[in-house]
Amino acid sequence: MNIVESLRALVDETAVLDATTLATRSAGAHRADTLTAQAMVRPSTTEEVSTVLAWCHAQGIGVVTQGGLTGLVHGADASTAEVILSLESMRRIEDIDVRQRTATVQAGVVLQALQEAVDAHDLIFPLDLGARGSATLGGNAATNAGGNRVIRYGMMRDMVLGLEAVLADGTVVSSMNRLIKNNTGYDLKQLFIGSEGTLGVITRLVLRLREKPQSHQAALVAVESFDAVANLLKHMDRSLGGALSAFEVMWQSFYQLVSTPPAKGQPPIDAGFPYYVLVESLGADREADSQRFNAALETALEHGLIADAAIAHSDADVQAFWALRDDVMQVTVGGAPVVFDVSLPIVEMEAFVARLRAALPQEIGEHRLWVFGHLGDGNLHVIVQVPAPDYLALRPRIEALVYEGLRAFSGSVSAEHGIGLEKKPWLPISRNPNEIALMRTLKQALDPKHILNQGKIF
Amino acid sequence: MNIVESLRALVDETAVLDATTLATRSAGAHRADTLTAQAMVRPSTTEEVSTVLAWCHAQGIGVVTQGGLTGLVHGADASTAEVILSLESMRRIEDIDVRQRTATVQAGVVLQALQEAVDAHDLIFPLDLGARGSATLGGNAATNAGGNRVIRYGMMRDMVLGLEAVLADGTVVSSMNRLIKNNTGYDLKQLFIGSEGTLGVITRLVLRLREKPQSHQAALVAVESFDAVANLLKHMDRSLGGALSAFEVMWQSFYQLVSTPPAKGQPPIDAGFPYYVLVESLGADREADSQRFNAALETALEHGLIADAAIAHSDADVQAFWALRDDVMQVTVGGAPVVFDVSLPIVEMEAFVARLRAALPQEIGEHRLWVFGHLGDGNLHVIVQVPAPDYLALRPRIEALVYEGLRAFSGSVSAEHGIGLEKKPWLPISRNPNEIALMRTLKQALDPKHILNQGKIF
């Protein structure tokens, strides 16, 4: 049986690529390898997705769904025995309802395309992350993407009102709810959000939009202790009354990294403090919100929560602050980084980092350690850089140190990136055997032939 | 086999009540009947819940879980063949973490008890509803409760970080996540939230707390058209920059009902307008927030979005406005009410109500129609009152009119109350056959012997 020919008989001929063509396509952002698979099929409708899945299911062929290929955990890797189902031909924004504040999209729509489309209506789709220019909304949903504004607007899960998914056997489950409140039986969309393509293929989404904020405040502040960082979060959250949109903490070494050459960033405040926080709020009124924001910072200064502060006076300032926080590529200078995306209770963070800092020298020798993250939602990015020649040998030991270190603090081995293949060995640190058994029960119920994204997660 | 004796051998003897004792207990709020069942067992730990379920599972005995018995859809009714599992002995607030802003509770804790416990720490648990004094947090989770502040804080689903549930066979799935971001495999808690006790028994919860708002603004406004109501929602939401907490609309006849004797409420503004809206915001600073709130109302007045407004100048005013909105018992004066809890897109509401208003006289004759609801989240309460003697005969016809009327607008037959037994016949109006089939697949996978809350939902 020739899979490429068979698929071409099911959908438009040009919608199917063979293995040779795939070998010319990149396997994803930040990756050096190219795609492998028996074939790629690019349906343009839900019906075509259904037809393809029904056929693959009958044949027992594994299917890997791909969106924008911006994932970081090898969650969309395919083997040479599998078929890739790419959503790249399903990029239609079907509807933007300004009054109901919903958008209806095909799953292949790129995040930024939706952001731009709704901006014209004075609305926002609040999910935002670095890969906005290539990540798809279907991929955002399948991985429950997080990003920069989770403390204000939640994760992708909180922005999906309805969805349509195709099950492994081709059954279309259309649950395109547009309502904020709908308690009519099980909330089926939750099954597909965050399950990394293992339970079904998301084909369409109804997304919740929000009114566009009319003002934007930001400050970069220096903090003397982690206790003060935690109290500052509570203080700012309370003082801003619902407008706090980001609370990004940088440990000293990360701040120094991104504000010292070869990094292009300039330090807005002295680089000698132990912690820095980028605080941001999104509001309704530029003047009144600035007053409130500055007053909250002044109170924090009076109470000793912050030691120094640089307040953004222009959009350029805001961008400059974010550019520091986002200049993560500096961690690749002078060595090879092992990058982590963990979460743990705020009260435990300092102890977790201290233990890691103490253990690293004896366990792995020469290294650099950087920590930063979305503290407002418990999410830390930990980066350990080692000399490039030692990377492959040291990586497993570093992973063991970081992940085993989380165990004592009930931490999560993946705050937002997901499990994919990369973190699969570490899943049992965050989930117990009965939880994993229940995940397997769900997988068995929805995909009994295990054709969808084989071997991912567990 | 004597079930009562068998259960008494499994748990503390006093934790098991027999059928005779149950017949002296009310079946729930607003109900005239008493409890029926073979027995009621009241475990005090998760382990006891597990032991009881494992035994019932082995015997093939149906189990109905009960919380505070405040449900409105007969979702916790038991038959004489079933065992009631009551969470009333699991009322321990295990932990309040002020910095992480989480509460860990047993499922039988009453909503108001948690509200009061966290208030002492200057935090809130933002779920709020009329039955707060008896509804349990486990019941709130099992039914995905909504309430008065959904536009600001979401439904119960959005407030649960982790949970522990016992499956039908007694397996304990403890997924007590305390983290806002945790993408480690399937989000299992979603299965149990809103599934009305049909997939497992929720025994413990980790709940997300919020900083306590420092100020409170409210106004009752009159609006000339439904178009203006919808635009007012957008205007207030945008102008208040995240602080809008309620947007409760009353159609004229409901406003007149609750502000005219025998109702005790006084009308703060003239009762001749077609629509009234109770707008509320929760903020951080009394003076600044009041200024902003009043300015937003002034702009609305200038733009013709509102025709008149009464602004609350004290907490007593706020309470008086809410007392009008909450005086739903007036609908029982002079007749018998059929009460609905539906949701539909805001753009469709006016047409839906107009069609219903036109159809009622010819279909059912003498009646009164009242409409009000949480417009901010699409949720309408529709109440049709008929002469008491005609109630039983007319009720099915009224249900058919309201629910069939929703079909054309992709509405939901249950915005927040759930399906239970009462709305089971109408589920297919809001959910398609493939959705219901997938619900059955999940039920079969998690409870293959169908012992949990038999016959509810579908």
UniProtKB/TrEMBL annotation, chains A, B:
Keywords noted in UniProt: FAD, Flavoprotein, Oxidoreductase
| InterPro entries linked | FAD-bd_oxidored_4_C, FAD-bd_PCMH, FAD-bd_PCMH-like_sf, FAD-bd_PCMH_sub1, FAD-bd_PCMH_sub2, FAD-linked_Oxase-like_C, FAD-oxidored/transferase_4, Oxid_FAD_bind_N
Query: Residues in domain FAD-binding PCMH-type?
Result: 33-212
Does the keyword Flavoprotein feature in the UniProt annotation? Answer: yes
Q: Does the keyword Flavoprotein apply?
A: yes
The cofactors it requires, by name, are: FAD
In terms of superkingdom, the source organism counts as: Bacteria
Give the family per the record.
Answer: Belongs to the FAD-binding oxidoreductase/transferase type 4 family.
The protein here is known as: FAD-binding oxidoreductase
UniProt organism field: Acidovorax benzenivorans
